[in-house]
Design a protein that fits this description.
15% strand; 3-deoxy-7-phosphoheptulonate synthase activity; DAHP_synth_1; single chain; TIM Barrel; alpha/beta; eight-stranded parallel β-barrel; two-stranded antiparallel ribbon
Length: 347
Amino acid sequence: MAAVPLPSPRDLRRAVPLSAAAAARVDDARSALRRTLRGDDDRLAVVVGPCSVHDVPAAFEYAERLAPLAADLADHLLVTMRVYVEKPRTTVGWKGLLSDPRLDGSHDLNAGLSTARALFVGVIDRGLPVATEFLDPMLAPHLADLVSYGAIGARTAASQIHRQLVSGLPMPVGIKNGTDGGVQVAVDGVRSASAPHVHPGVDDDGRLALVATAGNADAHVILRGGASGPNYDAASVADAVARLDAVGAAPRVVVDASHGNSARDHRRQRDVVTDLARRIARGDRAVAGVMIESFLVEGRQDLSADPSAMVRGQSVTDACLGWEQTERAMVTLADAVSARRAGGTAR
Protein backbone atom coordinates (compact mmCIF):
# COMPACT_ATOMS: atom_id res chain seq x y z
CA MET A 1 0.00 0.00 0.00
CA ALA A 2 1.34 3.42 -0.97
CA ALA A 3 0.56 6.53 1.07
CA VAL A 4 1.06 10.04 -0.32
CA PRO A 5 0.63 13.06 1.99
CA LEU A 6 -2.16 15.51 1.14
CA PRO A 7 -2.30 19.21 1.97
CA SER A 8 -4.23 20.20 5.07
CA PRO A 9 -7.41 22.22 4.59
CA ARG A 10 -5.61 25.27 5.96
CA ASP A 11 -2.67 24.88 3.56
CA LEU A 12 -4.97 24.40 0.57
CA ARG A 13 -6.97 27.52 1.45
CA ARG A 14 -3.73 29.48 1.61
CA ALA A 15 -2.58 28.09 -1.74
CA VAL A 16 -5.94 28.76 -3.47
CA PRO A 17 -7.52 31.59 -1.48
CA LEU A 18 -10.98 33.10 -1.64
CA SER A 19 -11.14 36.89 -1.62
CA ALA A 20 -13.12 38.68 1.08
CA ALA A 21 -15.62 39.87 -1.53
CA ALA A 22 -16.10 36.35 -2.87
CA ALA A 23 -16.49 34.96 0.65
CA ALA A 24 -19.25 37.49 1.24
CA ARG A 25 -20.98 36.30 -1.94
CA VAL A 26 -20.85 32.71 -0.68
CA ASP A 27 -22.44 33.75 2.62
CA ASP A 28 -25.08 35.87 0.89
CA ALA A 29 -26.05 32.95 -1.35
CA ARG A 30 -26.30 30.59 1.61
CA SER A 31 -28.59 33.03 3.40
CA ALA A 32 -30.78 33.46 0.32
CA LEU A 33 -31.04 29.70 -0.16
CA ARG A 34 -32.03 29.26 3.48
CA ARG A 35 -34.84 31.80 3.08
CA THR A 36 -36.06 30.10 -0.08
CA LEU A 37 -35.96 26.60 1.40
CA ARG A 38 -37.79 27.79 4.51
CA GLY A 39 -40.47 29.54 2.46
CA ASP A 40 -39.51 33.06 3.54
CA ASP A 41 -38.56 33.98 -0.04
CA ASP A 42 -40.99 32.98 -2.78
CA ARG A 43 -38.31 32.56 -5.43
CA LEU A 44 -37.56 29.06 -6.70
CA ALA A 45 -34.08 27.67 -6.08
CA VAL A 46 -32.56 26.21 -9.25
CA VAL A 47 -29.38 24.12 -9.13
CA VAL A 48 -28.20 23.71 -12.71
CA GLY A 49 -25.03 22.57 -14.42
CA PRO A 50 -23.05 19.57 -15.64
CA CYS A 51 -23.56 16.10 -14.20
CA SER A 52 -19.84 16.36 -13.41
CA VAL A 53 -17.09 18.74 -14.45
CA HIS A 54 -14.22 17.19 -16.41
CA ASP A 55 -13.13 20.23 -18.46
CA VAL A 56 -12.43 23.36 -16.40
CA PRO A 57 -12.35 25.88 -19.31
CA ALA A 58 -15.68 24.52 -20.60
CA ALA A 59 -17.14 24.82 -17.10
CA PHE A 60 -16.01 28.45 -16.95
CA GLU A 61 -17.63 29.10 -20.34
CA TYR A 62 -20.83 27.57 -18.99
CA ALA A 63 -20.62 29.84 -15.93
CA GLU A 64 -20.10 32.87 -18.15
CA ARG A 65 -23.32 32.02 -20.00
CA LEU A 66 -25.27 31.12 -16.87
CA ALA A 67 -24.35 34.19 -14.80
CA PRO A 68 -26.14 36.78 -16.97
CA LEU A 69 -29.17 34.50 -17.36
CA ALA A 70 -29.28 34.06 -13.58
CA ALA A 71 -29.11 37.82 -13.15
CA ASP A 72 -31.93 38.37 -15.66
CA LEU A 73 -34.16 35.88 -13.81
CA ALA A 74 -33.05 36.82 -10.28
CA ASP A 75 -36.43 38.28 -9.33
CA HIS A 76 -37.96 34.82 -9.74
CA LEU A 77 -35.16 32.25 -9.50
CA LEU A 78 -32.25 31.80 -7.12
CA VAL A 79 -29.72 30.12 -9.41
CA THR A 80 -26.76 28.08 -8.16
CA MET A 81 -24.34 26.35 -10.51
CA ARG A 82 -23.89 22.62 -10.17
CA VAL A 83 -20.11 22.06 -9.92
CA TYR A 84 -19.72 18.38 -9.09
CA VAL A 85 -16.14 17.13 -8.76
CA GLU A 86 -16.76 13.80 -6.98
CA LYS A 87 -18.70 11.00 -8.66
CA PRO A 88 -19.98 7.91 -6.83
CA ARG A 89 -19.53 4.72 -8.84
CA THR A 90 -21.77 1.67 -8.66
CA THR A 91 -18.74 -0.50 -9.48
CA VAL A 92 -15.75 1.18 -11.13
CA GLY A 93 -15.16 4.17 -13.39
CA TRP A 94 -13.91 7.74 -13.41
CA LYS A 95 -14.39 9.11 -9.90
CA GLY A 96 -14.42 12.76 -10.86
CA LEU A 97 -12.13 15.74 -11.25
CA LEU A 98 -11.14 15.71 -7.60
CA SER A 99 -9.81 12.16 -7.77
CA ASP A 100 -8.48 12.08 -11.33
CA PRO A 101 -8.04 15.60 -12.73
CA ARG A 102 -6.06 14.45 -15.79
CA LEU A 103 -8.73 11.87 -16.74
CA ASP A 104 -6.03 9.24 -17.22
CA GLY A 105 -6.26 7.03 -14.17
CA SER A 106 -3.28 8.67 -12.47
CA HIS A 107 -5.41 9.57 -9.43
CA ASP A 108 -3.37 12.64 -8.50
CA LEU A 109 -5.54 13.78 -5.60
CA ASN A 110 -3.07 16.53 -4.69
CA ALA A 111 -3.56 18.09 -8.11
CA GLY A 112 -7.28 17.35 -7.94
CA LEU A 113 -7.73 19.28 -4.71
CA SER A 114 -6.00 22.35 -6.15
CA THR A 115 -7.89 22.04 -9.45
CA ALA A 116 -11.27 21.66 -7.75
CA ARG A 117 -10.66 24.55 -5.40
CA ALA A 118 -9.54 26.82 -8.26
CA LEU A 119 -12.62 25.74 -10.24
CA PHE A 120 -14.97 26.68 -7.39
CA VAL A 121 -13.23 30.01 -6.88
CA GLY A 122 -13.43 30.74 -10.62
CA VAL A 123 -17.17 30.07 -10.73
CA ILE A 124 -17.76 32.30 -7.70
CA ASP A 125 -15.65 35.05 -9.26
CA ARG A 126 -17.87 34.82 -12.34
CA GLY A 127 -20.86 35.71 -10.18
CA LEU A 128 -22.44 32.37 -9.32
CA PRO A 129 -22.86 30.37 -6.10
CA VAL A 130 -21.47 26.83 -6.17
CA ALA A 131 -23.41 23.62 -5.50
CA THR A 132 -21.65 20.28 -5.10
CA GLU A 133 -22.11 16.75 -3.78
CA PHE A 134 -20.11 15.83 -0.71
CA LEU A 135 -18.90 12.27 -1.23
CA ASP A 136 -15.70 11.83 0.80
CA PRO A 137 -16.17 13.36 4.29
CA MET A 138 -12.40 13.59 4.79
CA LEU A 139 -12.10 16.01 1.87
CA ALA A 140 -15.11 18.21 2.69
CA PRO A 141 -13.03 20.60 4.89
CA HIS A 142 -10.81 21.41 1.90
CA LEU A 143 -13.73 22.83 -0.13
CA ALA A 144 -16.73 23.53 2.12
CA ASP A 145 -15.92 27.23 2.61
CA LEU A 146 -16.61 27.75 -1.12
CA VAL A 147 -19.95 25.91 -1.31
CA SER A 148 -23.36 27.58 -0.99
CA TYR A 149 -25.48 24.45 -1.54
CA GLY A 150 -24.53 20.85 -0.78
CA ALA A 151 -26.02 17.49 -1.67
CA ILE A 152 -25.74 13.94 -0.38
CA GLY A 153 -26.32 11.37 -3.10
CA ALA A 154 -28.74 8.46 -3.20
CA ARG A 155 -25.97 5.92 -2.56
CA THR A 156 -24.92 7.61 0.69
CA ALA A 157 -28.27 8.86 2.00
CA ALA A 158 -28.32 6.15 4.66
CA SER A 159 -24.70 6.67 5.72
CA GLN A 160 -24.32 7.77 9.33
CA ILE A 161 -20.93 9.28 8.45
CA HIS A 162 -22.52 11.54 5.82
CA ARG A 163 -25.39 12.51 8.10
CA GLN A 164 -22.84 13.55 10.73
CA LEU A 165 -20.96 15.52 8.09
CA VAL A 166 -24.12 17.39 7.06
CA SER A 167 -24.87 18.27 10.68
CA GLY A 168 -21.73 20.41 10.74
CA LEU A 169 -21.75 21.90 7.25
CA PRO A 170 -22.38 25.66 7.07
CA MET A 171 -24.79 25.63 4.14
CA PRO A 172 -28.17 24.10 3.19
CA VAL A 173 -27.74 20.46 2.18
CA GLY A 174 -30.20 18.25 0.34
CA ILE A 175 -30.30 14.49 0.99
CA LYS A 176 -31.56 12.42 -1.93
CA ASN A 177 -34.02 9.56 -1.69
CA GLY A 178 -32.52 6.08 -2.09
CA THR A 179 -31.71 4.46 -5.43
CA ASP A 180 -34.76 2.23 -4.95
CA GLY A 181 -36.95 5.34 -4.79
CA GLY A 182 -37.58 5.09 -1.06
CA VAL A 183 -38.08 8.51 0.53
CA GLN A 184 -38.01 7.57 4.21
CA VAL A 185 -34.23 7.09 4.15
CA ALA A 186 -33.88 10.74 3.14
CA VAL A 187 -36.37 11.90 5.77
CA ASP A 188 -34.43 9.94 8.39
CA GLY A 189 -31.25 11.55 7.06
CA VAL A 190 -32.75 15.01 7.50
CA ARG A 191 -33.73 14.20 11.10
CA SER A 192 -30.26 12.91 11.88
CA ALA A 193 -28.43 15.77 10.16
CA SER A 194 -30.51 18.37 11.97
CA ALA A 195 -29.32 17.04 15.33
CA PRO A 196 -25.96 17.67 17.05
CA HIS A 197 -23.29 14.97 16.69
CA VAL A 198 -19.85 14.20 18.05
CA HIS A 199 -17.72 12.21 15.62
CA PRO A 200 -14.19 11.72 14.27
CA GLY A 201 -13.17 14.16 11.56
CA VAL A 202 -10.33 16.23 10.14
CA ASP A 203 -9.31 19.57 11.59
CA ASP A 204 -7.89 22.56 9.69
CA ASP A 205 -4.37 21.18 10.05
CA GLY A 206 -5.32 17.81 8.62
CA ARG A 207 -5.17 15.95 11.91
CA LEU A 208 -7.70 13.37 13.04
CA ALA A 209 -9.88 15.16 15.57
CA LEU A 210 -13.06 14.83 17.59
CA VAL A 211 -15.64 17.08 15.92
CA ALA A 212 -18.74 18.43 17.69
CA THR A 213 -21.54 19.74 15.46
CA ALA A 214 -24.61 21.82 16.24
CA GLY A 215 -26.95 20.27 13.65
CA ASN A 216 -27.99 21.62 10.27
CA ALA A 217 -31.45 23.20 10.38
CA ASP A 218 -31.48 23.48 6.59
CA ALA A 219 -31.05 19.83 5.71
CA HIS A 220 -33.89 18.81 3.38
CA VAL A 221 -35.07 16.07 1.02
CA ILE A 222 -34.27 15.89 -2.68
CA LEU A 223 -36.68 13.74 -4.71
CA ARG A 224 -34.78 12.11 -7.60
CA GLY A 225 -36.91 9.07 -8.43
CA GLY A 226 -35.49 5.58 -8.43
CA ALA A 227 -36.03 1.95 -9.37
CA SER A 228 -39.68 2.24 -8.34
CA GLY A 229 -40.22 5.06 -10.84
CA PRO A 230 -40.41 8.87 -10.78
CA ASN A 231 -41.50 10.80 -7.70
CA TYR A 232 -41.88 14.38 -8.90
CA ASP A 233 -45.67 14.10 -9.29
CA ALA A 234 -48.00 15.94 -6.92
CA ALA A 235 -48.90 12.83 -4.92
CA SER A 236 -45.27 11.88 -4.34
CA VAL A 237 -44.37 15.41 -3.29
CA ALA A 238 -47.35 15.48 -0.91
CA ASP A 239 -46.25 12.17 0.60
CA ALA A 240 -42.69 13.44 1.17
CA VAL A 241 -43.99 16.68 2.68
CA ALA A 242 -46.27 14.74 5.04
CA ARG A 243 -43.35 12.57 6.17
CA LEU A 244 -41.26 15.68 6.85
CA ASP A 245 -44.09 17.42 8.65
CA ALA A 246 -44.59 14.37 10.86
CA VAL A 247 -41.03 14.61 12.19
CA GLY A 248 -41.04 18.38 12.61
CA ALA A 249 -38.93 19.15 9.54
CA ALA A 250 -39.70 21.93 7.07
CA PRO A 251 -42.40 20.60 4.69
CA ARG A 252 -40.64 21.57 1.47
CA VAL A 253 -38.59 19.55 -1.01
CA VAL A 254 -36.24 19.99 -3.94
CA VAL A 255 -36.95 17.96 -7.08
CA ASP A 256 -34.14 16.55 -9.23
CA ALA A 257 -35.39 16.51 -12.81
CA SER A 258 -32.77 13.95 -13.84
CA HIS A 259 -31.96 10.40 -12.70
CA GLY A 260 -35.03 8.32 -11.89
CA ASN A 261 -37.38 11.23 -12.51
CA SER A 262 -36.34 11.36 -16.16
CA ALA A 263 -35.87 7.59 -16.48
CA ARG A 264 -32.25 8.50 -17.28
CA ASP A 265 -33.32 10.15 -20.55
CA HIS A 266 -31.86 13.66 -20.35
CA ARG A 267 -34.47 15.07 -22.73
CA ARG A 268 -37.26 14.06 -20.36
CA GLN A 269 -35.95 16.58 -17.86
CA ARG A 270 -37.94 19.07 -19.96
CA ASP A 271 -41.14 17.13 -19.21
CA VAL A 272 -40.37 17.17 -15.48
CA VAL A 273 -39.70 20.92 -15.56
CA THR A 274 -42.89 21.57 -17.55
CA ASP A 275 -45.03 19.60 -15.10
CA LEU A 276 -43.45 21.26 -12.06
CA ALA A 277 -43.86 24.69 -13.65
CA ARG A 278 -47.56 24.04 -14.26
CA ARG A 279 -48.09 23.19 -10.60
CA ILE A 280 -45.99 26.10 -9.35
CA ALA A 281 -47.96 28.50 -11.54
CA ARG A 282 -51.15 27.20 -9.89
CA GLY A 283 -49.80 28.01 -6.44
CA ASP A 284 -47.66 25.05 -5.32
CA ARG A 285 -45.19 26.03 -2.59
CA ALA A 286 -44.10 22.55 -1.49
CA VAL A 287 -41.44 22.42 -4.22
CA ALA A 288 -38.74 24.82 -3.06
CA GLY A 289 -36.23 24.06 -5.78
CA VAL A 290 -35.38 22.16 -8.94
CA MET A 291 -32.13 20.47 -10.03
CA ILE A 292 -31.29 20.21 -13.74
CA GLU A 293 -28.32 18.46 -15.39
CA SER A 294 -27.11 20.71 -18.18
CA PHE A 295 -23.94 21.53 -20.13
CA LEU A 296 -22.93 23.42 -23.24
CA VAL A 297 -23.66 20.50 -25.59
CA GLU A 298 -26.53 18.04 -25.27
CA GLY A 299 -25.92 14.38 -24.49
CA ARG A 300 -22.82 12.58 -23.25
CA GLN A 301 -19.58 11.05 -24.50
CA ASP A 302 -16.99 8.56 -23.30
CA LEU A 303 -13.60 9.61 -22.05
CA SER A 304 -10.90 9.38 -24.71
CA ALA A 305 -7.14 8.94 -24.48
CA ASP A 306 -7.00 11.73 -27.06
CA PRO A 307 -8.57 14.86 -25.51
CA SER A 308 -8.66 16.56 -28.92
CA ALA A 309 -11.14 13.91 -30.07
CA MET A 310 -13.67 14.84 -27.40
CA VAL A 311 -16.59 17.24 -27.79
CA ARG A 312 -15.96 20.38 -25.77
CA GLY A 313 -18.68 21.07 -23.23
CA GLN A 314 -20.35 17.65 -23.39
CA SER A 315 -20.71 15.46 -20.29
CA VAL A 316 -18.61 12.34 -19.72
CA THR A 317 -20.99 10.96 -17.09
CA ASP A 318 -24.80 11.32 -17.30
CA ALA A 319 -26.23 12.90 -20.42
CA CYS A 320 -27.26 16.54 -20.02
CA LEU A 321 -29.54 19.08 -21.63
CA GLY A 322 -27.80 21.47 -24.02
CA TRP A 323 -27.54 25.19 -23.41
CA GLU A 324 -30.52 26.31 -25.50
CA GLN A 325 -32.80 23.76 -23.80
CA THR A 326 -31.50 24.94 -20.44
CA GLU A 327 -32.36 28.55 -21.17
CA ARG A 328 -35.92 27.58 -22.12
CA ALA A 329 -36.33 25.42 -19.01
CA MET A 330 -35.21 28.22 -16.72
CA VAL A 331 -37.45 30.79 -18.38
CA THR A 332 -40.35 28.33 -18.00
CA LEU A 333 -39.68 28.08 -14.26
CA ALA A 334 -39.34 31.85 -13.88
CA ASP A 335 -42.65 32.38 -15.70
CA ALA A 336 -44.27 29.88 -13.32
CA VAL A 337 -43.09 31.83 -10.27
CA SER A 338 -44.44 35.02 -11.86
CA ALA A 339 -47.81 33.35 -12.48
CA ARG A 340 -47.94 32.08 -8.89
CA ARG A 341 -47.39 35.60 -7.61
CA ALA A 342 -50.14 36.89 -9.85
CA GLY A 343 -52.81 34.50 -8.69
CA GLY A 344 -51.53 31.31 -7.13
CA THR A 345 -52.75 29.98 -3.81
CA ALA A 346 -51.03 28.07 -1.03
CA ARG A 347 -50.12 24.47 -1.74
